[in-house]
Write a structure and sequence with these properties.
Number of strands of chain B: 12
CATH architecture of chain B: 3-Layer(aba) Sandwich
Oligomer: heterodimer
Order of helices and strands of chain B: EEEEHHHHHEEEHEHEHEHEHHE
Number of domains of chain B: 1
Largest sheet of chain A: 7 strands, mixed
Distance between the termini of chain A: 70 Å
Number of domains of chain A: 2
Radius of gyration of chain B: 20 Å
Strand content of chain A: 15-25%
Number of helices of chain B: 11
CATH superfamily of the largest domain in chain A: Aldehyde Dehydrogenase, Chain A, domain 1
Strand order of the largest sheet of chain B: 9-8-7-10-11
Largest sheet of chain B: 5 strands, parallel
Distance between the termini of chain B: 87 Å
CATH topology of chain B: Aldehyde Dehydrogenase, Chain A, domain 1
Radius of gyration of chain A: 23 Å
CATH class of the largest domain in chain A: Alpha Beta
Shape of chain A: globular
CATH architecture of the largest domain in chain A: 3-Layer(aba) Sandwich
Helix content of chain B: 40-55%
CATH topology of the largest domain in chain A: Aldehyde Dehydrogenase, Chain A, domain 1
Strand content of chain B: 15-25%
Number of strands of chain A: 22
Shape of chain B: globular
CATH class of chain B: Alpha Beta
Helix content of chain A: 25-40%
Structural class of chain A: alpha/beta
């Protein structure tokens, strides 16, 4: 496959030869079972769900669908492991298990990256350079916390909470599993993890790693299935703490389901981040930042900078440069190392994105899409820009979770801060300017949990992540990331 | 010589820096335990609550952007003013059934609690913020910010300490609040309002309502401009209702018990953290 570069302002008309990632050494099993009490076991009802490669629409394998009985078994296994080996082990030993898992993820990183791209459609460049290394780093970071918890919260003694139910989304499958598992285990909890139904495969490899790492059976249990399974887990009486990453709608359902139950929960929900470009910004760098903010991972990112605000005096220049840059983005085979934008994760998600693009046009927005050639099979969406939109447009208000950017302009700092905050969400934000004082003025005033100044979509295990307002509560990463999994009691004086 | 006719005080609420009756003009009767005098207490309406939230919302950006030193001084000023009003507060607590010794202790503890939290204003950030060693050339730091507008349902059992120990940590952290003072112990509302008013607490930062918990709990927990709710009590039905309603805009709910307002057990920077968000900022390091 040769993809032509349509750049309008460069002389050279580069072509790229295919650079396919070899998948020879990856062995995808015919089927994957549930991971309960240290063993791979078939679901009691014997049902399976196909896992599809969204780039080819071909079935990769089938994955067991857990039912009520399986959930009971998983929770019971987690409880016994919590009361048994996991709590009797010293914290330092617990930490060593996590270090071991981190190392094994590194060792199997290429296999994990390939499977992540096959199962979820993200470009191999991203799964190889972002998802998998960060997943390993998360385990490595929290491993070291296990025996240092008494230093984390002054004046308080830290104790584990118990059995956690962890429900993760399909956009960063292994990375989200790592974000959930690492702090929960470091703090001495046991858990039941539910990966998303469209992307369970790397979690199953992680289960294999956990088994090979000789973690005591039941400390980590992984059950696969859809939202109904998630509901069962959230409502299960044997669960002490729920950690959920996903949509705000489901997050609110979880809050209602847990009302009056005295259970701990953390929610990492949706977003509609403002990415603000001032006239004094380094425009070319800002263009790269905008591309990264909205087209990274096909825009399947809760913290994506899906609302771009450009200072009026440079709006024309920025829009033009952005269009030119969009033309150079390579959309296609996730396993090609040159690919910038891979496949949309699922048919349902593609429909959802397409419906928003229709809505945007119906509401009067001006549509611009890059002239990329989309493969005929698979789920694909061209990088998309909407201009001539305002705050009240649905594509400006609602989370699309795809490569669709809405551009608005502004004149003053106060105006853009008002506009940026005019959303029920508050997960992230971006600011581009060369003036230090302005950075602090704006980053302080954006009501969101993560702000990138002159950069975007950067993540690190030591850096807390999570939202204000309807983007959720609680943080993952850093010292704050320990808090959801700990009971703090005053030190006796 | 005839006995002088005393001048009685009208009990009012405190909304947007003003001493206000309920817009509904409703009151409820209240009889003092010691002298059996009857008095009328404002019965806040849903509209009073909405007005208070609006005031709190408008006051938020000003209060949260005050310097920590300034917030510390204002809260310390509250303690100074309360100290001068001790006798009056003791009287009010006695009228609500406390014996003079307990009343005196409660007033002293309340004043000391304000001094305690005034001292935290410019320190809790240093304890709970961090510079994060990310593995790439970025400067990355996490700092605390106020959650926003906080609705407080004050403890039923305490007419002074319980109210102030609910408000003080919220206020120190840069939030603004609307507090429902319990119908059982409403008599200190005016004295507290006067204290806030004369301590340079800006209008709208603290709003004090009196009224019926059963009538207002729905509004407190459903209002979309309220970012967090602190509930004192153990009523299962109320807690379930609050937590169900809170989902509507993902309110942060804190369910607090007696130990969370009693003097020694309540003194903690972790009470401030109930209504704090952490913000993490990234910036590249380079040229």
């Amino acid at each position: 496959m040769t993809i032509e570069n349509h750049s309008q302002n460069t002389q050279a008309n580069w072509t790229y030869d295919p650079a396919p990632q070899s998948i020879e050494h990856v062995d995808i099993h015919d089927s994957y079972e549930l991971f309960i009490n240290g063993k791979f076991t078939a679901s009691k009802n014997g049902s399976y769900r196909d896992s599809i490669n969204p780039a080819t629409e071909k079935t990769l394998t089938k994955v067991a669908e857990a039912g009520v009985e399986d959930v009971d078994l998983a929770v019971e296994a987690a409880r016994q492991a919590y009361e048994g080996p996991w709590s009797q082990m010293t914290a330092a030993e617990r930490g060593k298990f996590l270090f071991r898992i981190a190392r094994m993820i590194q060792e199997r990183s290429r296999e994990l990256a390939i499977v992540e791209s096959l199962d979820g459609g993200k470009p191999i460049r991203e799964s190889r350079d972002v998802d998998i290394p960060l997943a390993a780093a998360h385990f490595f970071y929290y491993a070291g916390w296990a025996d240092k918890l008494d230093y984390a919260f002054p004046g308080r003694q830290a104790q584990s909470v118990g059995v956690a139910a962890q429900i993760i989304p399909w956009n960063f499958p292994l990375l989200m599993a790592a974000w959930k598992l690492a702090p929960a285990l470091a703090t001495g909890n046991t858990l039941v993890l539910k990966p998303a139904e469209t992307t369970p495969l790397t979690a199953m490899i992680l289960a294999d790693i956990i088994r090979e790492a000789d973690l005591p059976p039941g400390v980590v249990n992984i059950v696969t299935g859809d939202g109904d399974l998630g509901k069962q887990l959230v409502r299960h009486p044997g669960i002490d703490k729920i950690a959920f990453t996903g949509s705000t709608t489901v997050g609110k359902e979880i809050m209602r389901a847990l009302a009056g139950k005295d259970k701990r929960f953390t929610l990492e929900l949706g977003g509609k981040a403002a990415n603000i470009v001032f006239a004094d910004a380094a425009i070319d760098q800002a263009i790269e930042g905008i591309v990264n903010s909205i087209f990274f991972n096909q825009g399947h990112v809760c913290c994506a900078g899906s609302r771009l605000f450009v200072e009026e005096s440079v709006a024309k220049e920025v829009t033009q440069k952005l269009r030119e840059r969009m033309e150079t983005l390579i959309v296609g085979d996730p396993l090609d190392k040159n690919t910038d934008i891979g496949a949309i994760n699922s048919f349902d998600q593609l429909k959802r994105i397409q419906s928003y693009v229709e809505i945007g046009q119906q509401e009067g927005g001006d549509l611009y899409q890059s002239n990329c050639i989309l493969p005929e099979t698979g789920y694909w969406h061209a990088p998309t820009l909407f201009s001539n939109v305002s705050q009240s447009h649905r594509i400006v208000q609602e989370e699309i979770f795809g490569p669709v950017l809405a551009i608005q302009t502004f004149r003053t700092v106060d105006e853009v801060i008002d506009k940026a905050n005019n959303t029920p969400y508050g997960l992230s934000g971006g600011v581009w300017t060369d003036k230090g004082a302005k950075i602090f003025k704006v980053t302080r005033n954006i009501r969101a949990g993560v702000i990138w100044a002159n950069t975007f979509n950067k993540f690190d295990p030591s850096s807390p992540f999570g939202g204000y307002k309807e983007s959720g509560m609680g943080r993952e990463g850093g010292v704050e990331g320990l808090l959801p999994y700990l009971k703090l009691t005053p030190n006796t004086r | 010589m005839n006995d002088r006719i005393g001048v009685r005080k009208t009990h009012k609420m405190f909304i947007n820096g003003k001493f206000a009756r309920s817009e509904s003009e409703r009151t409820f009767g209240w009889t003092t335990s010691d002298t059996k005098d009857s008095t009328n207490i404002c019965r806040a309406s849903r509209k009073d609550f909405r007005d208070s939230v609006l005031a709190a919302k408008n006051a938020f950006s000003g209060w949260s952007s005050r310097t920590a030193y300034n917030r510390a001084q204002i809260i310390y000023r509250c303690a100074e003013i309360l100290e001068g009003r001790s006798a009056q507060l003791v009287e009010e607590l006695c009228a609500q059934g406390l014996n003079p010794e307990d009343a005196q202790l409660e007033v002293r503890q309340t004043i000391d609690l304000l001094v305690y939290y005034a001292g935290w204003a410019d320190k809790y950030q240093q304890l709970f913020s961090s510079v994060n060693p990310v593995s790439a050339p970025y400067f990355n730091f996490t700092a605390l910010e106020a959650t926003g507008v906080v609705a407080i349902i004050a403890p039923r059992e305490s007419g002074l300490l319980g109210i102030v120990s609910a408000i003080a940590p919220t206020l120190v952290g840069g939030n603004t609040c609307v507090t429902l003072i319990s119908e059982e112990n409403p008599l200190c509302t005016s004295s507290l309002s006067e204290t806030l008013h004369t301590s340079d607490v800006p209008a709208g930062v603290v709003n004090l309502l009196t009224g019926f918990r059963s009538e207002l709990i729905e509004q407190f927990s459903t209002h979309m401009e309220v970012n967090a709710l602190i509930y004192f009590g153990e009523d299962k039905d109320e807690i379930t209702r609050i937590e169900t309603n809170a989902a509507e805009n993902v309110k942060r709910v804190s369910i607090c018990a007696r130990r969370d307002w009693e003097y020694e057990s309540s003194l903690s920077p972790y009470a401030i953290l109930r209504t704090q968000e952490t913000k993490t900022t990234w910036h590249p390091i380079g040229f």
